[in-house]
């Protein structure tokens, strides 16, 4: 983990503060900082999330591919995680420097998602033994400022929740071999059920107390931490000890209870967020636009939190000029283009933001 | 104890038919005898064999058997840091786990390294590196637990300053019962994706424990556990 | 909008805006060409929208800086650490050229950046080549004698590649270096241009590139107008070359305006403080 060097006095300040339940940023031991979640930041992925918690900044994108199931699990789809610790986050990650951290995080994610019921892997199978969906969850760490594992796990859950899995419309038989045919309709997709997907709660021990949502300074005060996967029901899906620390069995039991409580809360907030992103998208699937109007924004922009605007064709150029003063669209040109090209209903702004 | 096996093979396999044994999802426990496939009680561990000092030219070494699971551990060093690595105020540990004709999950190495860093008094040898080489000769279940025990013994054999030795153990929970020291067959038979297990929970716990300090230095759990 | 056109055999579905309705893909594209409209609705001399900012990461990187550059859907982030004292592992290299600044470049692209998912993210040949190319470009403008013996680490991450990624990376690195205060002689600005149906076009998108249109990437120094990078792939007829080059030069000029605006915006506060101080000194 990217660590920073603190002097003994600074460490003492943090540890004593934690003991008195006042952390360096004014929080109590069990307070979580607020997080920002931005959806669909990568336009060529099936679902993407940028999640930012204070200084930690992560982009997660899911891409759905066609693959074949493992031989020993012919009826299950695949879920694969790949963490890329970019040197943007810390010079330590240069070259192969981030590999160890990546592998640790990948391992924890894989083990917490391997539990039954976390995600219904059977729904990801298309033709048993032949074809299944492979969902690749790619994680890019842009900035690493403490509590990285929690942020990544939350992002993964959100990203899987909004991942749009294209529907299979049929099977084509080539020389007797069936090949799935996917829909060409952008709006024809299904969502994964992520209600039972786990989040990870990391509990570093600062001094004699466990804290949640630690800053990078607090993490460098603790020798190690427990990473606990928790579902929305409060069930534990994985426990991993990271770092050079020892725990007494009594404190372990207490910490697991604490993690379950915190994890339930996180899950609830996340599911609400996923639902709100989905419902925004839903508005667009059946857009009811009056004639002579065009949709100003593409659904991806809309889902990203931009207000829906339905604009009269005649006003498009004005609205553009107002909204994008720095853009290279000029008003006369735009009007001319709109008049020339007879495709008012077409969504020609899509892909361009 | 009545034998019901059709071919009457080893007395160990009492209570299991041949068809049972070939079935990949064979029941973990025989309902008639209350014993496991290999004749153990559920809270009985496999025979353990340990030996230290098996390799003369190394600092410390050990050999551990948990039933058919066999692990060799060799400790070398502490040696000077190579020039590639920057100065370090405490000692460093490198762990390398190999297996004969197979692949070891990357997680094992990370987990072992964390555990070893927790028990070795690293302040005693600054600017030096301690190498721990583990070889899994045969993995018939609970290999990580055997590795922990072997590493603890090899460190003690080599006279490396440690807080405590460490003992590893694995526990299997299939939703109904806890099984001590599961074999590979039992681990394979537990299918975490099964719905029944989903309802009550189930999983595998590996624990590294420091007996005289009553602390854990390694803990990993996979599966689901209800509160 | 055509962003999935180059999708590989295993990539899932090719999206096509439903609003194009019954028109087949080819007829639509042909119709547009005859009206001088490119597939994404731009005119030949129109660039995609540019968004850029400096100091994107709120964390103080110990004298470092960062920048984000986005053109259309192509997004690049660059971070600069330093100038700082050379690291131990690189001191040996530094000792050989004590009179120079050691520059350490690392380019990587996210595995979701292109339509075909990349399985490895680091140290592949393409990334290393890109690092070398970017380094050789930036070496033209570093003022080495101001930070002798020190080291600068420049990391660049391509988040999404939708055409013109090389140019975007160069612009991002320039901005990040300015943000970090690494002494530069001049701006390096880059822009791409292409050519189809006898019409030179600025700022190629991935959809256009995948149809086999040539891509010319041009990078110039803003003051001296010297060309520091010129790369072209695919077939471009020689008679059209000067037209395309001129358009790319024009694009660089426009790009420069955007970059300069960003810098002014970033440093206007600083400037005001300096001006106020000067005024106070005069009185």
Automatic annotation (TrEMBL), chain A:
It comes from the Eukaryota. It holds the Pfam family RNase_PH_C. One of its GO terms (biological process) is exonucleolytic trimming to generate mature 3'-end of 5.8S rRNA from tricistronic rRNA transcript (SSU-rRNA, 5.8S rRNA, LSU-rRNA). Residues 32-166, 198-260 form the Exoribonuclease phosphorolytic domain. GO terms for cellular component: cytoplasmic exosome (RNase complex); nuclear exosome (RNase complex); nucleolus. InterPro entries: ExoRNase_PH_dom1, ExoRNase_PH_dom2, Exosome_comp_Rrp42_subfam. GO terms for molecular function: mRNA 3'-UTR AU-rich region binding. This is Exosome complex component RRP42. PANTHER family: EXOSOME COMPLEX COMPONENT RRP42, EXOSOME COMPLEX EXONUCLEASE RIBOSOMAL RNA PROCESSING PROTEIN. It is found in: Nucleus, Nucleolus. It comes from Allacma fusca.
UniProtKB/TrEMBL annotation, chain B:
It is found in: Cytoplasm; Nucleus. The keyword RNA-binding applies. One of its GO terms (molecular function) is RNA binding. Pfam families: RNase_PH. Keywords: Cytoplasm, Exosome, Nucleus, RNA-binding, rRNA processing. One of its GO terms (biological process) is U4 snRNA 3'-end processing. Residues 44-161 form the Exoribonuclease phosphorolytic domain. InterPro entries: ExoRNase_PH_dom1, RNase_PH. One of its GO terms (cellular component) is nucleolus. This is Exoribonuclease phosphorolytic domain-containing protein. It comes from Allacma fusca.
UniProtKB/TrEMBL annotation, chain C:
It is found in: Cytoplasm; Nucleus, Nucleolus. Residues 46-183 form the Exoribonuclease phosphorolytic domain. GO terms for cellular component: cytoplasmic exosome (RNase complex); nuclear exosome (RNase complex); nucleolus. The keyword Cytoplasm applies. InterPro entries: ExoRNase_PH_dom1, RNase_PH. It holds the Pfam family RNase_PH. Signal peptide: none annotated. GO terms for biological process: nuclear mRNA surveillance; poly(A)-dependent snoRNA 3'-end processing; rRNA catabolic process; U4 snRNA 3'-end processing. Keywords: Cytoplasm, Exosome. It comes from the Eukaryota. One of its GO terms (molecular function) is RNA binding. Non-catalytic component of the RNA exosome complex which has 3'->5' exoribonuclease activity and participates in a multitude of cellular RNA processing and degradation events. PANTHER family: EXOSOME COMPLEX COMPONENT, EXOSOME COMPLEX COMPONENT RRP41. Component of the RNA exosome complex. Belongs to the RNase PH family. This is Putative exosome complex component RRP41. It comes from Allacma fusca.
